[in-house]
C-alpha cells in the first residue's frame, strides 16, 4: 500500500472508532428528564385524586422491592424551585417533565380543572422559562387516573377520546409557552409490562388480550392528540408533538438472526413531528431452537410473536437494575436503524442514563463513563451515519422513585436525601461532568473526574 493510502485508511479508521474530536452541531440541545409520579409526591393533597401507581403501591407493596411508594418521592410538588435551580446550574437547554393527569383533572375529565395543580405546572413552566430553560412536557408517563383504570384504562377504546380531551386541556392551558410535547412515554412498556406481568401501572395481568387492546388504543390516542394539535393549535402555537419509544438494541446472534432482529425492532411504532428515543440497554436475539421453551414471558426475555429468544452477552457490564446491561454501540446501531427504516426523521433522544446502588453515593465514575461512551456513539451516529439527531436528554435530573425498584436503584445526576424532609439535592460527579459537556461541547472526561476523590 502506498504511504498516502495507509494514511487515508488510518484516518478513516480513526474517525470511525474515536469520536473525541467530534462536536455536537450548533443548535444541538441538552436536557434532563423526570416524570410526575417519580418526583412530585403530594399524592393526596391539593385536590389530586389517585392514579394507578398510588393504587398499585398502596395495595400491593410487595411488588415494589423496598415496599415504598411515590407518596412523597422527591417532594417536587413543594421543592420545584430547587429543581429549576439545579437545571439551571447544569446549564440545561431544556427540562423534560410530565403532567399528572389526576392532579390537573381530578375527575379525569375536563369538567373540572384543579387550580392548585394548574398553578403548580404554571410555576414550573414559568420558572424554567425565566432561567432560559425550555419546558418539554410528557402528557402521559404512566400515572393513569385510577378512575379511568376502573373503566378499563388503556384496554377501553373510549380512552382515545378521553386522552384527546386531556390533550386539549394541556394545549389550551400551556400551549402558549410549551412548544415540544411528548404524548406518551413508552407504549411498549405500558402495554407489555403493564399487561404481561401485571405488576405495572394497570395492575392487570392479561398478556393474551390486554396487551394488544392497549397497544392499539395507545397508538390511536397518540394519533388523536397529534391530529388535534395539527388542526387546531399548530398555527397559533407553532409547536410540535412527538412520542417517546423505548428501544433496546437487539443484536443478531448469528447472520441467520438478522431478519428476526429487524422484525423485533419493528415492534416499536413510528412517530410524527419528531421521534422521541429512549435508550438504556441491549440484548442478543435469535430464533427459538426446536424443543426449546420460550420460558418466562417477560418483555426483555423473549418475543412471543416472533418466537425469538433474547439473551445477554456475558461481556456486557451491568448497571444496578436487574435488566440493565451496558452496550454503548447499541444506541448508535439503533439510531441508524430508525433512520434506515423511517427515513430522515428528526430524532430527539428523550432518555438515556445509568443506575447505581444507593451505597455508591456521589462518586459515580461508572455513570460518567456510561454517559461519555453513549455520547460518543451519538456523535458517531450524527457524523458518520448522518442521523438527524437534535437533542439529548439525561435520565434523570434527580434520584427518584424507580417504579418496581422503589428507591433501591438511583438514576440521578443529583443525589436526593430521602431522609431529609426537604429532600435536599446534591450534585454527583456525573452532574459536574454533564455540565462540562454542555459548556465545552467536549465529551472527554476531564482529569479531575477520572480519579475518585473526596473533593467531588
Ligand atoms: C424508562 O423506562 C422510564 O421512562 C423511566 O420512567 C424510568 O425511570 C427509566 O427508564 C429507568 O428505568 O420487566 O424485564 O422488561 C425504561 C424501560 C421498562 C426498563 C421496564 C425496565 C422492566 C424490566 N424500562 N423494564 S422487564
Tell me the number of strands. 16
| Tally of distinct domains | 1
Named at the architecture level, the CATH assignment is Alpha-Beta Barrel
Largest sheet: 8 strands, parallel, barrel
Mean pLDDT level: 92
Bound molecules: ligand GBH
- CATH structural class: Alpha Beta
CATH fold group: TIM Barrel
- The neighbouring-strand order within the major sheet is 1-2-3-4-5-7-13-14
Sequence stretches where pLDDT stays below 50 over 5 or more residues: none
Overall 3D geometry?
globular
CATH superfamily: Glycosidases
Number of helices: 15
Radius of gyration: 22 Å
Structural class: alpha/beta
* Fraction of residues in β-strands: 15-25%
User: What fraction, in percent, of the residue positions are helical?
Assistant: 25-40%
Question: Alpha-carbon distance between the termini?
Answer: 49 Å
Organism: Pararge aegeria aegeria
Family: Belongs to the glycosyl hydrolase 1 family.
Keywords: Glycosidase, Hydrolase, Signal
GO biological process, one term: carbohydrate metabolic process
